Amino acid sequence: MGRLKQLRIFNGVLKDKASLIKTTLSTKRQTSFIRRAILRATTHSSSSPPSSNRIDAVIASGNGSRPRACTCIHAIMDRLHGTRDTFVALKCLYTIHNIITKDSFILRDQLSIFPTFGGRNFLNLSEFHDDSDPESWELSAWIRWYATVLEQNLTVSRVLGYHLSSSDSKKNDKDKEEKIFALLSSDLLIEIDALVGFVQEISNVPNSLHLQRNNLVYEIVRLVSEDYRLIQREISLRVVELDERMTSLGVDQLTLLMSALKKFEDCKERLSLLFVNRKKNDGLWHLIGETKMKIETTMNKKAEEMALVRIIKRDETREWGRQPFRFTSDGSWLGLDRVSLTVSTVR
Fold first, then answer.
1. 3-class state of residue 230 by DSSP
2. Phi and psi (nearest 5°) for 327?
3. Are 152 and 198 in contact (CB under 8 A)?
4. Strand, helix or coil at 156?
5. Cys-Cys with 152: which of 25, 201, 250, 274 at CB 3.0–4.6 Å?
6. How many Å apart are CA 18 and CA 88, to the nearest integer?
7. How far is CA 290 from CA 185, 259, 286, in A?
8. What is the pTM of this model?
9. Residue 294 belongs to what H/E stretch?
10. ∠ CA(32), CA(35), CA(40), 5° rounding?
11. Is 200 exposed, middle or buried (0-12, 13-18, 19+ CB in 10 A)?
């Protein structure tokens, strides 16, 4: 390890100690308790992920009431946006990811609405760069990727109406099938598009995959792989349902479904590089391939039916055009037999 890097780590340790002392001396006891838990989970000193005890302490500090949860989320965001250190930023994101995946509804709820003006890019890390050394520069790309993945996680949750890792998401397939069965086809297509968009963001992982040797990055990829496992299940259930409705779907809907499935397939190679032999799910890829072929067959059949209808309409128009619409001088149509009408004057 280079001298400059050692000096930087030492400086980071001093910053952590100073921040802990500051929170200890604070008169705002509840806020200082929350900030201490966050500081201990997001230290400069180690490239290892925070322990489960540290993560649980952060979650416990924010549970109990909405004001406490709000204070906790704001404190994490302050820590995240106030650092230019890659490991502190990654640990903050890792802590946020654990809040999303663990059943802490009140914290997840506050995270979902933070900030009210933030939109999709609420983590605001698209410009993050740490150029203190080559490894930090490469890790900066992982921070930007990880932030986007977490943002997409929350975006998809809004579309589905529940968090992927929530108890609603973990219902057995029978319960989920009943819920999906009740949805309109247009709603199912919107949900599939959002889920595939999440997969696309995951597949946009940085090229420096060798950094998975770092314990923190390895643990981050493990958590993301769990999200991907849940996404696969959600996509599979919706594709099966739309497959059963195939004949009732319009051409526009079939085109949207085909486009989404192609985008999903385009991610396969990159996902296999990221997860190696994990989360392969050959059954899902087989389902996607079969569904694409069925869509193509159905679209061809519909195109043939539409072409036949056009031919029939054209022939009918031509037939009408050949009819001899001739009239006599008194306006009578020769195509009809004229019948004399006698008006009776007998009362």
1. helix
2. -125, 150
3. yes
4. helix
5. 201
6. 15
7. 19, 15, 6
8. 0.83
9. helix 282-321
10. 125
11. middle
